[in-house]
Amino acid sequence: MSVADHIQPSDHWYKGAIHVHTSRSDGRLSPEEVVRWHRARGYDFLAVTDHNVLTDMSTYSTPDFLTIPAIELELDQTSLGTKYHLVALNPGDDLAWYAQDLSVQEAIDRLNERGATVILAHPYWSALSWPEVLPLRGLLGIEIFNTSAHTDFGKGFSTVHWDDLLSRGARLVGFAVDDTHWINNDAGGGWVMVRASALKIESILQALREGDFYSTQGPAIYDLRLERDVFRVSCSPVVTINFIAQTRYGAQLQAPITHPLRGGEYHLRGNETFLRVECIDATLRSACSYTIYLS
């Protein structure tokens, strides 16, 4: 099985930012400045997720640059008194249903009823534990790297939260984002690379839902293949490749000092329930694959 088996020859890779703020909420740059910044750095699509308000970005869409309607909602309360934050892509125009006294599950349900793609934002920054996330239904995934949470508080990485959930049976994909507010160098640190048939909202969202993407801070993942009991990855030059599975399963490959890794393989031991890959370069930037479920 290959990640490319069901991909058509006409498909392309698109670089996207899916958690970004503007001056319409608590970002420092205007919507126009945000678009200009991302276009200049090779992004193909952008989701502006201002807090509790839908910012209309449709006028900035062109044949070679897509804006996806989106929002970040804050509601409910965790065991430590923080709020749950949900990023909703393509949530519809009507937010009359939204109220901060809704439970997080009620909000997820209502977003799903409207066809939205729902992601749990920055679990580490929000002080969330796996028992607070595992019961939730209707999430596509969680943010596994959030640049703003990293540069503000050193709490950007949530891969441990992800693996805790995967090990307990959750099926959630992982997203790298910036959560850019244009403060503390919080732009350009994490994004998704999506393989889709067209630069259109439904094509991009379908690819995210089907796992046709990877999350990255810089390294590229070119191919993943599970053939019989061997899991192979090819990637841009890196110094470490981590094959992550539950509990004591998985492995790490380290490059010799003078010869970076351009790929590697992992031989399944037979009891893995899931498997994913991290490719880490010499500057400690990483790329994370989607998850393959083996049970």
Q: What does this protein structure show overall?
A:
The protein contains six helices and 18 strands. The chain is α+β, with helices and mostly antiparallel strands. It folds into two domains: 12-216, Alpha-Beta Barrel (TIM Barrel); 221-293, Immunoglobulin-like (Sandwich). The strands form three sheets. Strands 1, 2, 3, 9, 10, 13, 14, 16, 17 and 18 form a ten-stranded mixed beta sheet that branches. Strands 4-5-6-7-8 form a five-stranded mixed beta sheet.
Lay out the secondary structure.
Elements: E1 12-20, H1 31-40, E2 45-48, E3 66-67, E4 70-75, E5 84-89, H2 104-113, E6 117-120, H3 130-133, E7 141-146, H4 147-153, H5 159-167, E8 173-177, E9 191-196, H6 201-210, E10 213-216, E11 221-227, E12 230-238, E13 240-244, E14 250-254, E15 261-267, E16 274-280, E17 286-288, E18 292-293
Parallel strand pairs: 1-2, 2-3, 6-7, 7-8
Antiparallel strand pairs: 1-9, 4-5, 5-6, 9-10, 10-17, 11-12, 12-15, 13-14, 13-16, 16-17, 16-18
Cα-atom radius of gyration: 19 Å
CATH H-level homologous superfamily name of the largest domain: Metal-dependent hydrolases
Number of domains: 2
Describe the main β-sheet briefly: 10 strands, mixed
Question: In CATH terms, what is the architecture of the largest domain?
Answer: Alpha-Beta Barrel
Overall outline? globular
Number of helices: 6
Structural class: alpha+beta
How large is the share of residues in beta strands?
25-35%
CATH class type of the largest domain: Alpha Beta
- Low-pLDDT segments, ≥5 res: 1-9
| Average pLDDT metric | 94
Taking the alpha carbons of the first and last residues, their distance comes to: 15 Å
